[in-house]
Design brief:
By secondary structure, the protein is of the alpha/beta class. The chain contains 12 helices and 10 strands. Strands 1, 2, 3, 4, 5, 6, 7, 8, 9 and 10 form a 10-stranded mixed beta sheet that branches. Helix 5 packs across helix 12 and helix 10 packs across helix 12 (about 275-300). It is globular.
Length: about 300
């Protein structure tokens, strides 16, 4: 019987956590799925550990090391189900994740993208990352992504396979902010349903790229290079994002890191903001972001036809 939904997990040398992730999928309340684990060149016994799991719904794909985005794309290409969802190898699903994800797509044939809510855990601290339950149009989705006024993460994304193929999947040149970059390209064609249901848990690993403060400015510059229209359409937001990072470093006493971030900005062709431009951008960008958040809460969007 063909699967109704495909789960894609890229992994590299995370044997213990990927086993935990796989267990969370195999224990789902909805049984008609396939879980494709793309092992991106692990050398820690991941392949042998997964081979001991005798469940035909688990599909192991070995690959040479090419990066997580190439691994995700390999999973999308191989997927047999019309709906695809993702699970990073250090995260876990709650038991109802797949059942409720499919319900959204079954209830609305026009829906292409779904973003769920989640619990973020870092050490002993837990944070509920809950989005308002509403449909956002393509234009509003882009604005909320640019302003970072909704919670997103790789394991929160579900989409129809054809929509992912239509935009070319993940960009293999992006190794940080790759989920935001993917959604920005999806927003050119599709809106998204936001779900307030916290249906998975994000574990912030020590070796996670997204969790590192170092390299943020370079990664943001790379993102702006991929989407240059953002600086033209939302001129205050890029300097606001850079200034916010520098200010946070200064307030935490990380003066060298703040200086490095500023210099990385200055040397970037996609950014290059002067100190006065950063100050002005911070003031105006903060105001624009606050107004957008208020408008977003008021309007709440409408369901697609």
């Amino acid at each position: 019987m063909a699967p109704l939904i495909t789960v894609i997990t890229p992994t590299h040398n995370r044997r213990e956590t990927v086993l935990r992730a796989v267990e969370s999928v195999l224990s789902q309340s909805m049984p008609r799925f396939e879980h494709i684990v793309v092992d991106d060149g692990s050398t820690d016994g991941t392949a042998a550990a997964l081979a001991r799991i005798s469940d035909p719904r688990l599909v192991y794909v070995g690959a040479k090391w090419r990066g997580a985005n190439a691994a995700r794309n390999a999973g999308i290409e191989r997927a047999r189900a019309p709906v695809v969802t993702f699970l990073d190898s250090d995260d876990v699903y709650l038991p109802h994740r797949l059942e409720r994800t499919l319900a959204w797509f079954d209830d609305n044939a026009a829906l292409q993208v779904l973003l769920s809510s989640f619990v973020s855990r870092k050490g002993s601290r837990s944070t509920n990352c809950v989005n308002p339950e509403t449909f956002v149009s393509p234009m509003l989705l882009e604005r909320t992504l640019v302003a970072q006024t909704i919670f997103i993460a790789g394991s929160a994304i579900s989409a129809r396979r054809e929509a992912l193929l239509e935009i070319g999947g993940y960009d293999s040149d992006i190794n940080r902010m790759q989920d935001r970059e993917l959604l920005l390209r999806l927003a050119r064609r599709f809106g998204a349903q936001l779900s307030g249901d916290m249906d998975w848990t994000k574990y912030n690993s020590q070796n996670s790229i997204s969790g590192r403060r170092a390299g943020y400015v370079e990664a943001y510059a790379n993102l702006m290079g991929k989407h240059p229209h953002i600086a033209h359409s939302y001129p205050h937001i890029p300097p606001y994002m850079i200034a916010r990072q520098i200010i946070a470093d200064i307030l935490r006493g990380r003066i060298p890191e703040a200086f490095e971030g500023y210099m990385a900005n200055r040397s970037s062709k996609a950014l290059g903001y002067s100190l006065p431009e950063l100050v002005s951008g911070y003031v105006q960008g903060r105001r624009w972001r606050r107004d957008l958040s208020n408008k977003f809460r008021d309007e709440r969007g409408a369901r697609p036809a």
